[in-house]
Every structure is written in structure tokens, then in C-alpha cells.
Amino acid sequence: MNDANDILKDMNDRSREVFRAVVENYMDRGEPVGSRTLTRSLSEKVSAATIRNVMQDLEHLGLLDSPHISAGRVPTQLGLRMFVDGFLEVEDLKAQDRLKIDATLGGNSADVGGMLDRVGSALSGVTQGASLVLTPKHEAEIRHIEFVSLAPDRALVVLVFSDGQVENRVFTPPAGQTPSSMREAANFLNALIEGKTLSQLRGTIQTEISSRRQEIDLLAQDMIESGLALWQDEGEDSARLIVRGRANLLESGEQDEGLDRIRSLFDDLERKRDIAEFLQLTEDGDGVRIFIGSENKLFSLSGSSLVVSPYMNSDRKIIGAVGVIGPTRLNYGRIVPIVDYTAQLVGKLISDRS
To answer: Could you tell me which residue ranges the Heat-inducible transcription repressor HrcA C-terminal domain spans (predicted)?
Structure first.
């Protein structure tokens, strides 16, 4: 395949202008762009026939494609990559977008997970795409654990960390649990947690339950195991992925085939395939990166684009990422500064709370 940078160097001014006009019209309208449309937007007055010849040349270079006979052109993945690398003009962050993102980060809540969930919703709303937020693995020592009964078939486990962060999750408790068994389970755990992180606590719990099986009520054992299984399922090196705005991406599909591909993408995300790759995507630098279609295997089937940026802790270590998924005709110039600002803000907030 031709290298986009080499092609760009070989293009003359007219080819560049026609190419840029095709891509910008496509991103704005989402439809194939015809030569007559371009005659009204080019700086140089040329005939539709001349523009068609230029578009044919661009098609031979692999930058444009004709989805239907006599239907105008759309940019290819190579064309979009060349546009992003060589023509994209990044806008300034709009004041209203900044305010919407800032509003999600207000307050002094220690629940970082809840804050990141709100960030994902705000990103989705501001960009009208689907948002991704990869949360950091929490390795602070645990200060206190509590089980709270909500209903016969629902209970809440609350973890308070030494850095002040609070995490809580609803789970299904073992049948026949009683208030006393829940207290016993919490007391057992709180006697073990001093100075331990969650991953360190898991091994200790298994050892203690095995050696003190006769001393611990069976119902309390079940409560301990079922309550902590919520974190165990994620694996020691995994991080939580928050996906918001699925409906936005589904609504942007124009054909049933496109909807099926997008549903497949979300099925993959929900099964947490290749989630660690989101951090690997950003290892080469601390700025925003754009992945178009098959440039990332998670998005190759759906034909979507990903605009993603890492965020860092106070030690400048990458601990998570925020991003936006959308169709390839995303308004990259507007979304890049939104993602960049959000990532920097989240990193600063997490660093301050640490």
C-alpha cells in the first residue's frame, strides 16, 4: 500500500484542494461527494469534468473510493489517515464543552469510580459518540469493609481505602444470610485487612478460611467469598472499562449491516477483549492518538474510529485512558481537544486525591 506521506508530497495544489474538499464534505454530510458539489467550494474556478479527472487520480492513489456507480466519492481509510496527519486543523476547545466536562468533576466525593462514570457520560453527550474510560487499578491499602443488606436477594459491599477512596458494589448474597452472618463476615475481614491491598487480601482470606474452617460460620464464609468475587472476577492486572453512549453510535448507523458491526464491537467491549490494549495504544506518547478502522483490531470490524488519550498520576505514570468512538467521519478537529482536555483533567484530579 502507498505511504500516505509519500503520496502527499507528490500531490499538486489542485489535487490537495480537491482531496481536502471531498473529505470535509463527507465528514459534514456523511454522503458521497460529487464533482458538481465541489465546483461551488473550490477557490479556483474549474469545470466539473476537470474535478472528476482529479477525483479519478485520487481514487487510483487509494485515497478515494466510489461506493456506487456514478455516485461521487468517499475517502478510504488511507485517505482519512492522510487527512488526519496532513490536513487536520484542531479547533480550540469550546467554552460550553469545557463547562460540561468540568461539571462532572465537581465536589469532594472520594468515589473516583463514580466520577469517571460521570466523565464518560459527559464525553458521550458532548461529542455525540460513544465514550470509553479505562479506570486505574486501585492498589491503596484497605481501611474498612462493610456488608449492607438491601433486600433478601441483594446486598452491598463497601470498601474504604486508606487514601480516602470509597468503592461499593451490589451483589447477590448467599441464600439464608442474616444480619449476624453479615456482621461476622465483615468482622473477619476487618481483622485481616490492616496494611493490605485488595490483591494481597485475597490470598490471606483463602489461607485463613482453610485453617479456621471450624471457627467461621459457613454462611459468613459464603458472604465473604461472594462479596469479594466481584473484584476477583476482574483479575489482578485488569482495569475497569466504562462505556457510555452506545445509543449514539447505533443511531449513526445508516444500514442494518453497519448496525450489526457496531453491535459486535460493543459485544467485544462488554466481554472486555483486548482492554489492556487501550493503555498499550498510548505508550508511544502522552498526547491524543487517532485510530481509524482496522488500525486497531477492536474497531476493524465495525469500521469505527477511536480518538484516545492516556491520563497519568502524579509520578507521570500512565494509569488509564479516555476516548471517544464514532464513525470514521467524526469531527476530529473538535473531538481531539475535548479528549485531550478531559484526560489532563482526570489525571490532575486523581493525582490531587492521591
So the answer is: 115-336
Report how far residue 269's alpha carbon sits from residue 302's, in angstroms, rounded to the nearest whole number. 12
Q: Which residue has the higher pLDDT, 239 or 127?
A: 127
Choice between 128 and 219, residue whose per-residue pLDDT is larger: 128
Q: What is the pTM of this model?
A: 0.70
Nearest Cα to Cα of residue 192 among 227, 149, 228, 142: 142
- Domain at 142-232, CATH from 3.30.390.10, 2.60.40.10, 3.40.50.10610, 3.40.50.170: 3.30.390.10
CA 289 to chain centre: 12
pLDDT at 55: 92
What DSSP state is assigned to residue 107?
S
- Overall fold of domain 95-137+239-353: Beta-Lactamase (3.30.450)
DSSP 8-state assignment for residue 40: T
CB half-sphere exposure, 4, CA atoms < 13 A:
16
- Tell me how far apart the alpha carbons of residues 95 and 63 are, in angstroms, rounded to a whole number: 35
- The structural domains of the chain, with segments of one domain joined by +, span 4-86, 95-137+239-353, 142-232
Long-range CB pairs of 98-101, under 8 A, 24+ apart, other chains included: 98/341, 100/125, 100/126, 101/126, 101/338, 101/341, 101/342, 101/345
Nearest one of 312, 292, 307, 314 to 337, comparing CA atoms = 307
Measure the CA–CA gap between 18 and 3, rounded to whole angstroms. Answer: 19
- Residue of 225 and 310 predicted with greater confidence: 310
pLDDT the model gives residue 53: 92
d(CA 205, CA 23): 58
Whether residue 234 has pLDDT greater than 80: no
- Per this entry, what is the length of the chain? 354
User: If you classify domain 4-86 with CATH, what class do you get?
Assistant: mainly alpha
Q: Which residues pair with 145 in a beta bridge?
A: 159
Look at 36-40, 99-103, 196-200, 335-339 and tell me which has the smallest mean pLDDT: 196-200
Torsion over CA: 57, 63, 68, 72 (sign): negative
Q: Compute how many other C-beta atoms are within 10 angstroms of the C-beta atom of residue 175.
A: 9
